[in-house]
Design goal:
The structure is a homodimer. Chain A is of the alpha/beta class. Chain A has 4 domains: 84 residues, Barwin-like endoglucanases (Beta Barrel); 47 residues, no CATH class; 211 residues, Pyrimidine Nucleoside Phosphorylase, Chain A, domain 2, CATH 3.40.1030.10; 83 residues, Aldehyde Oxidoreductase, domain 3. Chain A is built from 18 helices and 18 strands. In chain A, the strands form 5 sheets. A 6-stranded mixed β-barrel of chain A has the order 1-5-2-4-3-6. A 4-stranded antiparallel sheet of chain A has the order 12-15-17-13. In chain A, strands 7-10-11 form a 3-stranded parallel sheet, with helices on both faces. At the A-B interface, strand 4, helix 3, helix 5 and helix 10 of A face strand 4, helix 3 and helix 5 of B.
């Protein structure tokens, strides 16, 4: 059937949507949600069908195409396109296999991931796939297959020099911003480290959000390569690079469904490392009541799974378990975290001790992994690079190479409230989850200057009347809103 | 945030969709696929967000509402509506429980089903629910909960008289059209039988499609009740009655995903019986290579599950296993099946024997269930009602009460091809699945006159050159297409 294109300037951000008049839909025998193949010159795209009964929307003989689909088909308003009915996506059968609890081959993962990237799966199919992979947990081999499929369907970056260093934290702890300290140290030691980070999904700030208060992080592949040539290191937002694009769509489905599947998380992390050609990876798994991983046994299991995938991808890995009971730095929120980082880089005496120590330990391990430092002397080398100011110099070079951010982004919010201790005693518990919620309600990460500043950490001795934490906001309403609903007594336990 | 309504005359047939301009979306901090609450006067509806960057589609300050949503909100073009962000649907947490393999309570099923009926779940959420219920098979109690929830969220019909008889076949076999013969016999015996049937989903004809060649089957509840008052019996399309509307949405998701979940099937069948107030139900489970249920053990298991649900709903059930190796009647396709039925009603000597016998047996069981016939004498009473012409008289009364269909619908397609036996021997195997495909390709059920007519059944002795089956179509292209791709030798095995 030939139909005339009607442009509908609607952006769906997801699957390709077309709109048929009910009369044509009946003739084609397609229903709402069915898929059709639309051909125009050399372009063929698969689209989902919506139906209208109103000629004003789409007349019989015409087909309404939403934005992304017009662009892909390169079909102007009024152009004639050919419509045919297609069988189910190849993925449907594969998704059915997974629902039945069977293992999928690497070719099957590639087929599904290709169709995801080409927007050929409906929301329902994608959700069924993600749900089935969550319920019938992916085996280690399946994680490798999914990971490779995600890399093959996205951009890849290659560097001639070896080793290519990388570091990653699986997250869950606010204020755990080690990357911006580690990367300049490693680069200052002469090693290559093209580090990609994510923005916040559910947290008050991702590494990319924090760094954006200081430098441009939305670099494409070419600008990233140029920055690396100049300085050995880069810290960029992975989202601008189109690495493993299927992962973004999977996460977009997982997130509202509250799915947090271990296998997909491992594939997601490792795909991004593999895509930038990392040869050495230090992985930080925080363990504790406030972290994603609660128990040592779960941590060991996760370590084993990551190591297997690393071996299969040829990436040398070191995995460390770190403390996951409280925020590591003092700041939570983009500018407040950036403040912590700059203090550490500048060897400021008021810099947060735990964050500095953790970063130096991790940098030390990486220097040893790369053979830059002898076993046992990595920490010392990292500390020397930091205290000598070489790390700061490298950091500044990186800021110049990537582009400096407007200074205003580093401003802390001008509205604030401080919560004080009501008794003397020792801090025996800090609820990092509620602190994160407060920081988000105060405006982080969108308002760079919003967030929470911790005056005390676990095991610190406090006096009645001493400050425990301060909430900052750029907007007085948000400040009020952020702490209005919280039982502030529950956040710090003083015993 | 207050926004001005822009009408978009697009019918989605599914979830409520609204379109925001990117600028407003950013201010509200909502993304593609998020949900918002739209309030207008006393109406509140939840809608999914699409985003446009084009002012031509939706200007900043406006919100585009698709058809169903405008109607529900009763909001005119230009009206101001209030937008607020809402948390996830309550169902999300419940769906998460099911994904984790936990049993759901009846209250939880009710919550999910209510949100399905109110169109408050996204396609992804609905797919996750259906997938999770498929993988973690529903327990018998869960089936009862789902069933009751589906009834509570739809229309119900009540009759004062008792018993209310019902009959159902779980399907899978073409040409198994017993309902139109059984119902007039039961009604002629003075029993109430308000029978609802479905249209074809994947088959060449549903009972409703076949009956539509003779009478109007799209009756609303009032017309159904009036027809019943006059004649005791009715045979209508269930889809016009809005019984268990959640079931339709679940099936619409299951179908493209190729999910055929036993628990949901049981809930779906029983919900429709419960909603029309059936007190007695005869259930036909065909068992055999061509049926949905392949093995005696699967049949027994299914019987036990149906019986449990029937007990819990207070419906007296009899379940029979019938032969599922071949089509029961001779015709496959609306008019061809109707021809078989009319021949049986008129005691025509060329009427298909198996279909007549099966129908009489089933009607006999029902007469015994209702206490109309003594145990052991039901078949005899049914045969007497049929042979005396009382069944035909009742049938004609029902046609008058529901409304006679145009005569043209009973016309068999004028294009035909007959396939003849290439050898002498006994019919040892008939592939009903391929026959169904041929009937569909020939145009059934949309073309009433299209389909397949069987000249031979299993165990019949045939001579070389005798006709095996004839394909009928209303359109010569479809006829050619229907048998072009089929290996005709594979359909009948003569040994």
């Amino acid at each position: 059937m030939l139909l005339r294109v009607k442009r509908l300037d609607i952006h769906t951000g997801g699957p390709f949507i077309s709109i048929l008049h009910a009369r044509d839909a009946e003739q084609l025998d397609v229903h709402y949600g069915d898929r059709i193949l639309i051909s125009h010159n050399n372009h063929k795209e698969i689209a989902v069908v919506d139906i209208t009964h109103h000629k004003k929307t789409v007349q019989p003989g015409s087909i309404g195409l939403m934005e992304e689909l017009q662009a892909k088909l390169n079909a102007r308003h009024g152009a004639k396109v050919r419509i045919s009915i297609i069988p189910h996506a190849e993925s449907t059968i594969i998704i059915g296999k997974k629902m039945a609890g069977r293992r999928l081959s690497s070719q099957e993962f590639l087929t599904v991931v290709q169709e995801i990237v080409r927007n050929r799966l409906t929301e329902a199919e994608l959700a069924a796939f993600v749900t089935a992979c969550f319920i019938h947990e992916l085996s280690d081999d399946e994680v490798v297959s999914l990971c490779k499929a995600m890399v093959l369907t996205g951009e890849r970056i290659t560097f001639r020099r070896r080793p290519v260093m990388d570091v990653h934290c699986i997250g869950g702890i606010p204020g755990n911003r080690t990357t911006p300290i580690i990367v300049p140290i490693i680069a200052a030691a002469g090693l290559l480290i093209p580090k990609t980070s994510s923005r916040a999904i559910t947290s008050p700030s991702g590494t990319a959000d924090t760094l954006e208060t200081i430098m441009d992080v939305s670099l494409g592949i070419n600008r990233l390569k140029k920055a690396i040539e100049k300085t050995n290191g880069a810290m960029v937002w992975g989202g601008a690079l189109n690495l493993a694009p299927a992962d973004d769509r999977i996460i977009r489905i997982e997130h509202p469904l509250n799915i947090d599947a271990e296998g997909q998380m491992i594939a997601s992390v490792m795909a991004k490392k593999y895509a930038v050609g990392s040869t050495h990876l230090l992985l930080d798994i925080p363990v504790g009541g406030m972290a994603k991983v609660k128990s040592p046994s779960a941590a060991l299991r996760l370590k084993r799974r990551f190591e297997y995938v690393g071996r299969r991808l040829g990436i040398k890995m070191r995995i460390i378990f770190t403390e996951g009971e409280e925020p590591i730095g003092n700041g939570i929120g983009p500018a407040l975290e950036a403040q912590d980082i700059l203090k550490i880089m500048k060897n400021d005496k008021t810099a947060p001790v735990y964050l500095k120590e953790k970063s130096l330990k991790m940098a030390g391990i990486m220097l040893e992994m790369a053979g830059k430092a002898k076993i046992g002397s990595g920490y010392k080398m990292a500390a020397e690079i930091l205290s000598s100011g070489r790390a700061l110099k490298k950091f500044n070079q990186m800021v110049e190479a990537q582009g400096r951010a407007p200074k205003s982004r580093l401003k802390i919010g001008k509205y604030k409230t401080t919560i004080f201790s009501k008794r003397n005693g020792k801090v025996s518990w800090i609820n990092a989850r509620i602190l994160s919620q407060i920081a988000k309600a105060a405006g982080a990460p969108k308002d760079y200057g919003a967030g929470v500043y911790l005056h005390q950490h676990l095991k610190d001795m406090v006096q009645k009347g001493q400050p425990l934490f301060t909430v900052y906001a750029e907007n007085s309403e948000k400040l009020k809103h952020s702490i209005a609903n919280e039982q502030l007594d529950l956040i710090f336990r003083i015993t």
